[in-house]
Write a structure and sequence with these properties.
With 323 residues, the protein is of the alpha/beta class. The protein folds into 2 domains: 96 residues, Four Helix Bundle (Hemerythrin (Met), subunit A) (Up-down Bundle); 191 residues, Rossmann fold, CATH 3.40.50.300. Helix content is 51%, strand content 12%. It contains 12 helices and 8 strands. Strands 3-2-4-1-5-6-7-8 form an 8-stranded mixed beta sheet, sandwiched between helices. Helix 4 packs across helix 5. It is elongated.
């Protein structure tokens, strides 16, 4: 790795730490109070830890898995100092995330298996879906890929205009037919245009209406079907965008979408503005869907490929990272 690459890596890690500042300070502060004056990890400490993780939006099911793992460690090692708790938490959370890491995304500059590589983006209004698409486009373009955007969220007022603004910021072309156009027709034209131009990546925006799951599923199924007629097996990814600041509400949205659509990965946004970073762990564990991207700021380069060890290190930054 070159000197400049090392500088870039440090910058990325620094952004991640800064983006998780609210989550980290809240979590470590609670843990510090729980273990104050105690030498070993006992039942009382574990009970306190369980409450801390649940109130940090890790979720009940995931918290119980983590506590069970730590209990096994205590039973096996017979005695664990409270000073080791942060390290143990890192190890067990990373192990939990690793179980759902079968489809870890490649770097943006890596080779793609299809040309064009078609990605469908889903998510309800207000979660940062359009912003995420713009940042994904910028990252892919910055990695040397030719990108085309498709404005197939024709239901929501101003959705097309917002995506046009992001296409300009990212410097990539957009295919759009305006509000109330047939979403499937827009998706078909987008993929056809990208294929004709020899583009590398297609990012297709879609409407996220959860009030009627049947209609949502039917619309997205139609979009998927027409894109598959242009490029084999398209879409190759279906990314669900969730607002991390909504905590357990994001979990419920994720469950609703995964019941209606075959989600391949998650993008968690707005982590920099919330103390609910634990939701990343809970969603990844309970849904068995990999978190692929996290948003740690408002700038165009503040969308990062999710790395479990780096994330956990940033969440427990006063501990040594586990690889």
């Amino acid at each position: 790795m070159s000197f400049f690459e090392k500088l870039g890596f440090k910058k990325k890690e620094q952004k991640l730490e800064e983006g998780l500042e609210k989550s980290r300070s809240g979590l470590l502060g609670k843990i510090g109070k729980a273990i104050a004056g105690k030498d070993k990890v006992d039942d009382e400490v574990l009970d306190d830890l369980e409450e801390i993780l649940i109130t940090s939006d890790v979720g009940v099911q995931t918290t119980l898995k983590i506590i069970e793992r730590i209990e096994d460690r205590v039973a096996r090692d017979k005695f664990l100092n409270t000073s080791e708790l942060n390290t143990i938490l890192q190890e067990e959370i990373i192990a939990l995330l690793r179980e759902n890491d079968k489809d870890k995304p490649a770097e943006f500059d890596a080779g793609l298996t299809h040309k064009p590589h078609v990605v469908m983006i889903v998510g309800v209004n207000g979660v940062g879906k359009t912003t995420t698409i713009g940042k994904l486009a910028w990252n892919y373009k910055n990695a040397g890929k030719d990108v085309v955007l498709g404005a197939a969220d024709t239901f929501r007022a101003a959705a097309v205009d917002q995506l046009k603004i992001w296409s300009e910021r990212a410097g990539v072309p957009i295919v759009q037919q305006g509000q109330n156009a047939d979403p499937a027709a827009v998706a078909f034209d987008t993929v056809s245009s990208a294929k004709a131009k020899g583009a590398d990546v297609v990012l297709v925006d879609t409407a996220g209406r959860l009030h009627n799951k049947v209609s949502l599923m039917n619309e997205l199924t139609k979009i998927k079907r027409v894109m598959g007629k242009v490029v084999d097996n398209a879409p190759h990814e279906v990314i669900l965008v969730l607002d991390a600041s909504t905590g357990q509400n994001a979990m419920q949205q994720a469950k609703a979408f995964t019941q209606a659509v075959d989600i391949t990965g998650l993008a968690l946004t707005k982590l920099d503005g919330t103390a609910k970073g634990g939701i990343v762990i809970g969603i990844s564990s309970e849904l068995e869907v990999p978190v692929k991207y996290i948003g740690v700021g408002e700038k165009i380069d503040d969308l990062q490929i999710f790395d479990r060890a780096s994330f956990v290190q940033a969440l427990f930054s006063n501990s040594k990272m586990v690889s």
